[in-house]
Design goal:
- The chain is mainly alpha-helical.
- Helix content is 36%, strand content 6%.
- The protein has a domain of 53 residues.
- The chain is built from 22 helices and 12 strands.
- The strands form 5 sheets. The protein has a 3-stranded antiparallel sheet with strand order 5-6-7, with helices on one face. It has a 3-stranded antiparallel sheet with strand order 10-12-11, with no helix packed on it. Strands 1-3 form a two-stranded antiparallel sheet.
- The longest helix has 26 residues.
Length: 624
């Protein structure tokens, strides 16, 4: 059985370093003062545990958000949310319309992360006063600055411009407590400084499940790529006040992402293996070479519910979209609209469409139809595409209790090697467009081609047939596979062909891992979320293709959309769960402030009022 979470042990270690008599002579037992607390590294380690639960949530511990995995991502074109046990359903199906509705009424993001920043600043103020080695001071300073960078990264992603504070505030200092927001560009520069310090000073190994150099590098690559691309594609803010960010600044931020990734890539600690599903469904992933950091779950201590939604229970929160399924390449490395081997052209049923596809699709989705409320299928999805990415088939076959309720002990990746490789290749391509070195074949070989070294087999297939996507080759302004230039007819014409394929690889590799909404936001591509294409539903609100003649007795609740007869009552077509309201769901008009404002959340109205009551001003984001 796994060990208890490390922070519990750290707490008792701290307590055990003092005798009972010593405690009787000092401050009260129910209090810790600065003089009695900031003593040694045990003190620092214990204090730092308060950061971990905010940023390393894994699969969480309930039925609702799964830590951002599966249905937990907000605005994306991979997963169609059709039901929820939370109160935030509308915020994912519609864009919020005011600063007091939906996601904008939630002030916890502002409050929680500024509390983390204050906590980090207090730690940074105390470390220089401690009687510990300089190496230890540098390490723990790096840890505190790392968490401060994570907090400010979250705030900037959410709100754009935010107040920046890098010292422990005197509660009487109203000028600092109520300072207005600083430009996002300035704050991102400070975030980079914190990440770089942490990267240079945090230890490569500081005991199990503690912050280490490669965790810093991985999350630095993720967040600096986000900030750099957001500033490139949006400018300094949203709306008419936005200004173009100079290439020199963009280059610096892309370099930050690349530097973070390279520390991980050049460490020799991580490699791609012939696993995929096992990354998400094993009760111990500590020895998996693809895992950089993870949240540990332990039977009887802390478990999660995600596997229950990928096993016997109906996936009634929603399901994958046909848009997501069609993004997977064919096994020859070509898009479905180009590959001569795609079997779903005339009959795009799962049975046909899943033949000879990117092998990751078989580790992510069930390769047969599973329709919720069909009167036929169980363990089904409202879109017909049932997820299995988070299901351990061996546990299910054995009837294990792990696949029911809140009993799964499967560890959850926080950051894994493949994502770092994808962060690297995207940052390398982007920096080549803003004054950096040219994008070259070596960049592909270190990243996408490294990921494609995996040889994956379908669970239960006898005999097992290893499948592997071909490597990609730089071919002028395009990529090619086995001598054929990739030319996807579904490509967004505003996106360069090479970048389109880099983004595709990211989408399929990280499917339902909570990254897609951030990607669409930073690329300024919320128009991909629109629920209609003209007057007809778009592929972001459609599910699997069904021919009702093949399923006699199927429920009338299963409504289909046939593109060849859009106004008729279809007996075959794509599952259209929101057929009665598709035109009233998400509508994004590029360039219009009422749409563009959704790239940033509203500054909480309560904070604006609190500033005003003290005679200060906290500005609001454009459009809110």
């Amino acid at each position: 059985m796994k060990k208890y979470l490390l922070y519990i042990g750290c707490f008792f270690t701290l307590v055990s370093t003092y005798s009972c008599d010593d405690f009787l002579d000092k401050d009260p037992l129910d209090k810790l003062t600065n003089d009695s607390y900031w003593i040694n590294e045990v003190s620092l380690r214990t204090y730092a545990q308060g950061f971990y639960s905010t940023y390393f949530v894994g699969y969480a511990q309930d039925y609702r958000t799964f830590g951002g995995y599966f249905s937990g991502d907000s605005y994306n074109d991979d997963f169609l949310l059709t039901s929820s046990v939370t109160t935030d359903t509308d915020q994912r199906l519609f864009f919020p319309t005011s600063n007091i509705t939906g996601i904008n009424s939630v002030v916890s993001t502002w409050k929680d992360h500024f509390e983390i920043i204050r906590k980090a600043n207090v730690m940074l103020a105390e470390i220089p006063t401690m009687d510990i080695e300089d190496e230890a001071k540098n390490h723990w300073t790096g840890v505190a600055r790392f968490f401060r960078a994570l907090a400010y990264s979250t705030l900037v992603k959410t709100y754009g411009d935010v107040p920046y504070i890098d010292f422990a505030i005197d509660p009487a200092d109203n000028e600092t407590l109520y300072k207005n927001r600083e430009p996002q560009l300035t704050v991102v520069g400070k975030i980079l400084e914190d990440y770089q310090y942490a990267l240079d000073h945090v230890r490569t190994n500081d005991t199990k499940l503690q912050v280490h150099k490669y965790l810093v590098g991985g999350l630095m690559s993720r967040n600096m790529l986000y900030h750099a691309t957001w500033l490139k594609y949006h400018g300094t803010t949203i709306g008419t006040a936005s200004q173009t960010v100079p290439n020199a600044d963009l280059k610096k931020f892309f370099e930050g992402a690349i530097n973070g990734a390279k520390v991980v890539m050049e460490s020799g600690e991580y490699n791609m293996g012939n696993t995929y599903n096992a990354l998400f469904t094993s009760d111990d992933i500590s020895s998996n070479d693809e895992i950089i950091f993870y949240r540990e779950y332990t039977t009887g201590v802390s478990c999660n519910a995600l596997m229950a939604y990928n096993a016997k229970e109906d996936q009634n929160l929603g399901g994958a979209t046909i848009d997501a399924i069609e993004s997977y390449l064919c096994l020859d490395g070509l898009p479905i609209g180009q590959s001569p081997n795609y079997q779903g052209t005339t009959d795009p049923s799962i049975e046909n469409a899943f033949i000879d596809r990117d092998p990751r699709i078989y580790d992510t989705f069930v390769d047969s139809l599973r329709i919720l409320n069909s009167g036929i299928h169980s363990a089904a999805s409202s879109t017909g595409f049932a997820s299995k990415k988070f299901l351990n088939e061996d546990w299910r076959a054995a009837g294990s209790s792990y696949v029911t309720g809140l009993l799964s002990p499967a560890d959850a990746p926080v950051i894994r090697y493949a994502e770092v490789l994808l962060n690297y290749v995207e940052a390398r391509y982007e920096i080549s467009k803003v004054g950096g070195d040219a994008f070259v074949q070596t960049d592909l070989d270190k990243s996408i081609n490294e990921i494609r070294r995996r040889e994956l087999t379908k669970w239960g297939e006898t005999p097992a047939v290893p499948r592997q996507l071909p490597s990609v080759t730089l071919s002028g302004n395009n990529l090619s596979v086995n001598g054929t230039v990739i030319n996807d007819p579904a490509r967004d014409s505003t996106v360069d062909p090479i970048l389109w394929e880099i983004r595709r690889e990211r989408r399929t590799e990280l499917m339902m891992e909570g990254r897609r909404a951030d990607d669409l936001n930073r690329w300024a591509k919320f128009e991909y979320l629109n629920s209609t294409n003209g007057t007809n539903p778009s592929k972001t609100v459609l599910g699997a293709w069904v021919d009702k003649d093949n399923y006699p007795g199927i429920s009338e609740k299963v409504v289909l959309y046939d593109p060849s007869n859009p106004g008729g009552t279809a007996t075959k077509g794509y599952i259209s769960y929101y057929s009665d309201k598709a035109s009233t769901l998400r509508t994004f008009v590029k360039g219009e402030l009422n749409s563009e404002r959704n790239y940033l959340r509203a500054i909480p109205s309560g904070q604006i009022t609190a500033y005003k009551d003290k005679g200060y001003t906290l500005t609001q984001n454009p459009g809110w």
